[in-house]
Amino acid sequence: MDEHEPLVSTNTSNPPPAQITTASLVRRGFSLPFIALGFFLLYLFGSTSRSNDLRLGQSRLIDAQLQESLVLGNLTYEQNATRYSSDLRTIFNAMMNVGHAPVFYSDIAGQFKGKWELLPFSKNISELLGQHSRKTVDESPSLEFPKESVSETASQGNMDLTAGGKFSFTIISNKTSNEDILYINGNMNIDDGYNSFDSTLHGLHFKRNGSIYLESAVDESELFLHNIPKMMLDPHSFQSALSVIRSINMDYLNTLKKQLDNGMIIEHVDTSGTSSAKCRFLLFMQLQPLPAKLQDILDLENVQNEGVYVIQPPQLLADMALLSPNCNSSLKSIQLRGIKNSIFISLNHNAGVFIAILTLIELVLTTRQMQQLSSLSARTKISPMTMGMMIILDAYMCIVLISIALMFPELFSPFVAASFLKFCLFSVFEMRYLFAVIQARRRDGSDSLERSFLFRVCIMFLMHSLWIPQVVSNAKRNTWRAFNRSFVIGTSITRFLLPLYAWYYQDIIIASQSLPSAKILWALAVFISIQVGVLILQDVQGPRIFIPQQLFPQTYDYHPAFPPLSNNESISLQMDTIADSEIDSNQSIYPPTSSNTFYSTTATRRTHAITYEKEALSSRTELEDRHCAICFTEITTVTSDHPFFSTERLKYMVTPCNHLFHSECLERWMEVKLECPVCRSDLPPVY
Questions:
Q1: Which of 345, 366, 391 represents a domain boundary (last residue)?
Q2: Which end of the chain is more exposed for a tag (fewer CB within 10 A), N or C?
Q3: What is the pTM of this model?
Q4: What is the per-residue pLDDT across 206-240, written as a single tens digit (0 to 9) for each?
Q5: Cross-referenced Gene3D superfamilies, in alphabetical order (predicted)?
């Protein structure tokens, strides 16, 4: 075989490209601009609607920050500071006893890892924090944790917070108006050996004494700036923290206003995850003094970013106590080990260089393999599957390296270089060698599978089966509307147009013997249409419309049936009442993003909620004057004998605590928080 012979053969029975006229090509592609225009209009319509929703959410976020400013303006140490018990103060004093003139790192941004164990107390955590006697201001009802007894562990989910486990968190430091105080935010993970849950945290770092006060919550929307000053142990720290928090809130408020004016809308991201644990923690952290002089540490932090160490960086260590009132749990972590971001970046910079060197070695070995074993007989001995696995691995590594380079600007140079070398390895050398191996095995007659017509058809249908996993997931989890309908239809059409285009212009396509026939394309179109149709049917009729109910485990049905009532049956409606002086009846209720938590007080929601007795729920046929507690508009319910019951019942939802809402309103709420807008009860996910 001549080494310059083409690796991919073409079908000689097709007419040469010269026989295809320009007019024919133009006539065949005449409809392509109209298809592109249709997709552009579809995208424009969807993006406009999305932009309006984001602007509304941004406005609510600004309103909440204005309310936050009012709350911060009314805080005082005498009325709002946490009244810690003597047991807690003894622990805090022992933890913060760091000796005379200690030396600490001024910036601790980085990662901390360690082990946690139970911190036993004879009293409930709420009593230790003095929440039974704390005075709260009217503007901040969300500061109160749920009152739970020791036996009430629903917030723990499947977590065991008694046996010990692993603990880690990552934090970022931000400068504030006080040069001695840093604002900290980040993420935390608690693992008990079998289960784990993530949460978001924020707080303040006092650089002079190395003390850190943090608050964590599973959902970021449950974190509030005005909770941080309340954690302080003395009046001086309270006033310093309050001044800094007020400045942070004002800066954030101004930033939101500028973003709204400039059209830069930030979408709220749900950070609650899928964990069943909903524990909120108060974290008290104390850095351990460094065995070095203050000037040496200052010099070290000044030159560390340049990669030059005046001394060997001391180990970053800390002790921590964690208190969770809603889970009634108290934990401690001793000798937490931390690694600063500057050191982390330096180590990963070296890792990027090391990967680049390894890839260069692989490039040299691959080129030698291609040169030494370039004969036809040698290529037939090589397995295409082995080469394919090597290509997949190197392509995956290329994607990982370029992702790291984009996420960490400090690591861009070494990782993008390593990614480029990986790209050259698999795309230029390994792919070329794979084609040569396949060509050699075809001549040898040992690749009947690769050349088989059935194999190519199966691969094509497998590549266009992308909606089948979503259909199965919808049926298994009893969910729907995972994708926008325009996205499903548009993506399916665009992916089908590529093989259609190749078939339509097969006279000028290389390796046209591998192209599908018209019958296969029709079958492929029907196959894709069936997938899209099933997805749309699940959105309209329900995700389990075509599967027997007994095949799946029972889950809570948010759309219950309303059977007709007999003449002697009655309907019982109960309206929770609250004094008019405590609420504003004209105030609207929004989902609990960080933008509107202050407007979504329990008292306000209960005023407009409709509560149904459990006995009446199974036998009512029609409810009069029903209104959604979120949007305040009327809700239309249907009975089981309604001709369109299967579709109409999906328009309303009834929670396990027997509160009625519009489906759209409650689903938007549950995208942010899995609790009832009226009574704060936990809600099961919409499976």
A1: 345
A2: N
A3: 0.58
A4: 998 899 999 998 877 778 888 899 999 999 999 99
A5: Zinc/RING finger domain, C3HC4 (zinc finger)
Q: What residue numbers bound the domain in which 660 lies? A: 573-670
Q: Is residue 106 part of a domain?
A: yes
Q: Which two tokens stand for residue 218?
A: 């599973």
Q: Is residue 424 part of a domain?
A: no
Phi, psi of 190 (to 5 degrees): -120, 130
| Separation of alpha carbons 546 and 559, rounded Å | 18
d(CA 325, CA 144): 10
Domain stops at, among 345, 369, 402: 345
Give the tokens for residue 620.
């009512």
Residue found by looking up tokens 């001394």 in the block:
311
Beta-strand relationship, 652-654 and 316-324: unpaired
Both tokens of 627, joined, read: 């209104």
Identify whether 476 is part of a domain: no
Average pLDDT over residues 425-436: 86
- The verdict on residue 643 lying in a domain is yes
Rounded to the nearest 5 degrees, what angle is found at the Cα of 318, between the Cα atoms of 313 and 321? 170
Give residue 524's identity as a one-letter amino acid code: L
Q: Which residues contact 271 (CB under 8 A, 6 or more apart)?
A: 200, 218, 219, 220
What three-state secondary structure class fits 48? helix
C-alpha distances out from residue 436 to 365, 379, 387, Å? 17, 7, 11
Q: Are 310 and 303 in contact (CB under 8 A)?
A: yes
Q: Which of 394, 492, 480 is nearest to 667 (CA)?
A: 480
Length of the chain in terms of residues written: 687
Q: Residue 560 and residue 654: Cα distance in Å, rounded?
A: 7
Measured between its terminal Cα atoms, the distance across the chain in Å is 60
- What was the pLDDT predicted at 308? 54
Alpha carbons 189 and 636: distance in angstroms, whole number: 43
Give the pairing of strands 181-191 and 610-612.
unpaired
* C-alpha to C-alpha distances, 487 to 42, 51, 97, nearest whole angstrom: 9, 17, 59
Distance CA 271, CA 219 (A): 5
The tokens for 414 are 């070494």
